[in-house]
Amino acid sequence: MSHFRRVIAVATAFISLLLFAMPARAQDCKLMQAASLDMIPSTDGHILVSLLVSGIPRYFYVEIDAPFSSIDLNFVDQSQFDHSRLERPSMPFVLGQAIRDTAIVPSLQIGGQSGTDVRLLIVPKFNVPDKRAIGILGLDLLSGFDVELDFAKNKINLFSQNHCPGQVVYWTKNYASVPMQQSEVWQFIQRIPMQLDGQSVFVAFSTMDDHSFLPLSLARQLFNLAPGSPGLVATTEVSHGTETVYKYPFKTLEVGGVKILNPNLFIYSDDDVWKHCDNHQIKRAPFLLSCETSGDFVLTLSELRKLHLYFAYGEKKIYVTTADAH
Fold first, then answer.
1. What gap in Å lies between CA 57 and CA 75, rounded to an integer?
2. pTM of the complete model
3. d(CA 79, CA 73)
4. Residue 91 in contact with residue 113, Cβ under 8 Å?
5. pLDDT, tens digit (0-9, with 9 covering 90-100), for 59-107
6. Phi and psi dihedrals of 281, rounded to 5?
7. Beta-sheet pairing, 56-62 with 133-137
8. Domains of the chain by start residue, with CATH
9. Neighbours of 202 (CB within 10 A)
10. What gap in Å lies between CA 264 and CA 280, rounded to an integer?
């Protein structure tokens, strides 16, 4: 599933983003860790974490591109959690489904941080490959912290945002820092400027998408690529709906001197309808939809695992090193 061009519903403001925020204190320059979560491999190659739901460990997928956290309807019914109806026509989408209800989870604990009566979107058909998972942990809960993705140690670390700006990279001396460009619709979705073979691109991140796709219209604009160009080869290795998918030997994807060599990017023949996606709204009863771009493309786990990332949501910056930097 590609997030390059998306149609998403404008959600109502029903979730407190700081349910798990740590108590305020006088700012100092020492990072205060709130939680350290093990990255547990899912059966489909993504990331699970263990959270305590009403005191019992349960697995959740982690998606750093999901605006809201969600939970399986079957689990909600089995647990007899209360439901609350969302206002119409404003509804978010999860796993391709329009969401109409939220569950009120009596207690939810992330590491050492806990919240009560936490509202999660209810997914009617939680059709994910790993049947151990009962939900998706998204940015509504995560972005109340700074989030570190340490793939070398298979850890997701959460920190208080109350620290001195620019003093978060503790594992090495050399790093890149770049500003987040936040989504117009979802304010905590992040994308950053990078260089693909020397050309400027905006890149978003996903820990649940399977592959990174670049639209052919952008490849044509940046690299003058078209069907028949040297090195551009059609492939059936992956699919992108009914569109033709190509491979091309890109050499580097770079941010502030931190490089991913030979990035594994696919190119797809994009629909002209989404070439100019400018946050305009579309009325499609009973929904009010918003056309929005996540970025020029979404970087997925195959490439993210080569990096060590620190999302400083309070600073609106992302700090990046190679995964093996120390």
1. 13
2. 0.85
3. 10
4. no
5. 999 999 888 999 999 999 999 999 998 876 456 789 888 899 999 999 9
6. -100, 145
7. parallel
8. 5-159 (2.40.70.10), 178-316 (2.40.70.10)
9. 14
10. 31
